Structures are given as C-alpha cells and as structure tokens.
Amino acid sequence: MSETIAVIPGDGIGREVVPAAVRVLDALDLGLSFVMGEAGDDTLSDTGEALPDRTVELVEDSDATLFGAAGETAADVILPLRAAVDSFANVRPARAYPGVDAVKPETDLVFIRENTEGVYSGIESEIAPGITTLTRVVTDDASRRIARFGFDYAVERDDPVTVAHKANVMRATDGQFVESVADVAEKRGAEYETALMDALAMQLIMHPEEYGVVVCPNLAGDMLSDLAAGLVGGLGLLPSANIGAENALFEPVHGSAPDIAGEGIANPTATVLSTAMMLEHLGYDDAGAQVRTAVEKTLEQGPHTPDLGGSASTEDVASAIIERL
Ligand code: GGG
Description:
The protein is of the alpha/beta class and 325 residues long. The protein has helices at 14-27, 41-47, 53-61, 74-84, 140-157, 173-188, 197-206, 218-232, 269-281, 285-301, 314-323; strands at 4-10, 33-36, 64-69, 87-95, 108-114, 124-128, 131-134, 161-165, 193-196, 213-216, 239-244, 248-252.
C-alpha cells in the first residue's frame, strides 16, 4: 500500500519550496499520495485559526508530513504540528557540499535537539504590566529519551557525541539534563563530552571538524543549528526531521523568509533534502539516496539560487535535481 504524505506549505517561501520538493518526490514515481493542509499566517486571516483541526487530523492520519515554514504564527503552528506527530527528537544535519562556498568546508555535524520542552514549552505569562515570565521545563524522561536517540544516532554515524548545556547557570534544569544524559551513557557504556553551550558556539565556528553529533536542549538546538548553517553556506541547505515513535514530520530548518517570499528565488535544497530524510524514514532508502545524489550534483554543477551566488529560480533548481535523479 502506498504511503500518504500530508503536505503543509505554511507561510512565505514555504509556498515555493514545498511544491518544488513535491515535484521531486512525484518524479520518483513511488506511488506516494499527497494530501494538502493549510496552516500559518494566511490561514489565520482566512479562517481565524492558524492551525485548523482539519490540518492536525490530516497530519495524525498520514504516514509522514512535509512542512514548509511558519511566519508570525510559528508558536501556534510548528510546535503543535511537531506535537501532532509526537516528535521528541529534531534531527538537523549541517554539512558542507562541494560546489558551495562554505566558511568551514570541513563541517559535518548533526544536531539532535530535544523537541518537547525547555523554553519552548509555551508556558509564558505577563504577571504584571511590563513583567513577563517563562517557565523552562526539563524532565528526566525527555532528557533520557533524547540522550538514547542521540547515542544511537552517533553509533550509526560513528561520530563523537557532545552534549550542550548551561548547567553552571541553569542549575536545576540543565543540571537535570546533564544528570539524565550521564546516567543513560553510564548504563550503555557510551562515551561523550559535555560543553557549555556558549563556549560550544565559539568552538563550532573555529573547529567544526572536531565535532559530530551534538545533543542539545530545545532552544540551544534551534540556535546552534542556525549557527552551523552559517558555516556551510546558509539556511537554504539545512533539512530536518521531527521524529516520533510512530510518525514524523520533515521540514527545512529555515523559516518563511518574508524578504524574498513571492520572488520565486528561494533555495529548495533544504526542503528537497528533508524529503530525502522522509524517504529514508519510510524505508525508501534507495530513493532517498537518489535524491541526495541528485541534490549534491546540482550543488556541485549548478544551477544555484541567489543565496548561493547564482541567479536561478526555485523551479530551475528543482528541475535540475529532477533531471539528475
Ligand atoms: N521550517 C521551520 C520554520 O518554519 N522555522 C521558523 C521558526 O520559527 N522555527 C522555530 C523552531 O524551529 O523551533
């Protein structure tokens, strides 16, 4: 039976890069069916809800979801969508490619970001005029779960593991994170190092080649992966997977990029690479590898969108990838 993929372009350039990536998926002729869902700023204006129940049901009932980007309504769209697939791990690979000018061509990192809690728990309030608070939630269960996932992932890649934290300041929350990770590591005899996340940001810029898998609390994973995008040629290159036990959602790391939205020049690479992650997750390993190879050839030989110094359109790049499948 063919898989059903929920497709939610979202806002801004999501509406350009997602259709381009669906064209690539279609060209593989795997018999996948696509069901379209609405979410985001325009959906809020049109329907009064940024994420209608129908879209959430679509995601829950599909075998996987391809999402584009969220704009102003990000907190009401991405976080509930990631929750709809029960995703606990956000996997964000950041690597340099031949043919793309990279600040650090030796970069080959994977951020394993805790996806359910931290400062993205959504517990924020204004307790008095001009005084706002945010509750940072870190639990033993979620910390152990992301540690197990990160250690397993590192074994597959044969990579060292670095655990980012700030337990010297956030003693209770990151103290818990570090303690839970340490216990998981001890039980399975896994080797790893810990790093204060601010110092790690500098080290990643100076010596990315010394790192492999970086296990992070939620916000640190969001920020450090964007930092790594800067090392390899920009956010147009970073795909991601939100993995749950039974379902998963795939999306480019970038947001809606309102500055270039509507111009047809957004780089579709991150979204197409997200579909490669999706195909591999669904068991289509050969098709996933085919997409990666076609993307790599296109990055090496062109055409390139303006973010990579070229003048090609989103559609030109998608067509070049399809020709190389
Ligand atoms: N496609 C990812 C996206 O829309 N990113 C914008 C954003 O606000 N991201 C926050 C996050 O990834 O948690």
